[in-house]
Amino acid sequence: MPELTSATPDLARGARELIRTCLAVTPADRVLVLTDLRTRHLAGVIAAEAHTVTSAGLAVIPDIADGYEAARREVGRVLDSHRPTVTVFAAADPGDLLAWDPTFWEHLERFGARHAHMPALDDICLGVGMAVDYTRVARFTLGVKELLTGGRSLRITSATGTDLSLTCDPDRPWTPFTGLYQCGGQGGRLPQGEVFCTPLTADGILAVSVVGYPFNAETGLLAEPLLIEVARGAAVEVRHPDSVLERAVRDWLTAAPNGTLLGELALGTNRDLPTLTGNLLFDENVPGVHIAFGHPFPEYTGADWESRVHVDMVVERPSVRVDGGVVLDEGRYRI
Fold this sequence. Notes:
5-stranded parallel beta sheet
């Protein structure tokens, strides 16, 4: 039995939604929660909730920031020891390394495990981002996907300086991520709620208030937006008052082939998440827009290129028009 951890009502509700709705845990399951010392108090709440349904284990792994290989070996060891059917990764991973490690996902596939990936879990992610009705989130997300399907012309604006025009193609479909991982082999991030595609092209200015991995743990919610000039579907200039951040983002985008290409256009669809926090794990799902440069997830989007770079950029309170019709108005859905 996992160590019992006291929890506020909101944290307890988030853990309950995670275990009972998103992962649909049953008495036949074996649950394993992977955590570290920094996140153990929240992982304990999750493991204790899982234990009300079935057998559940809590494994504390080495801090990934101190050495990925040592942490990965321990993850492999405890997976082989527990052979879980449901796993939750609730630990700090500032570089998002585990999510991009194909051997980790292959390891989970050996057991047909359903998986929740929470690499920057904090009290807000569990007590707000998870403490919502994910059946409702899934229903709305699928509705937004249907609305966007077939749309060709998008314009994104914001008071912070975004003015970006994009062209989409029905042959590059919109994919919904609902947060429901209820069948063997399914898995992804939580909190959740988004739809995304890879546009054909984009031109204009992107003003972002949250920069994704590997920068997010240090930058959080930016006081001044990072400005990215986009031309013919690629980032061509990066500007910010902090010259160190500006240079770091520019260097990262140009570190690998196709890193500057606009690989993902996504709308957050979790209407119960009120505002940006600076934590990408939460902020990607707030009603609004995030755009990623680099890898386009071609298995979902139909894009014909790849990259080892993938950097998400979140726009604060955007307005979105699709073929002239208003979908979002300053961060609020009008559908």
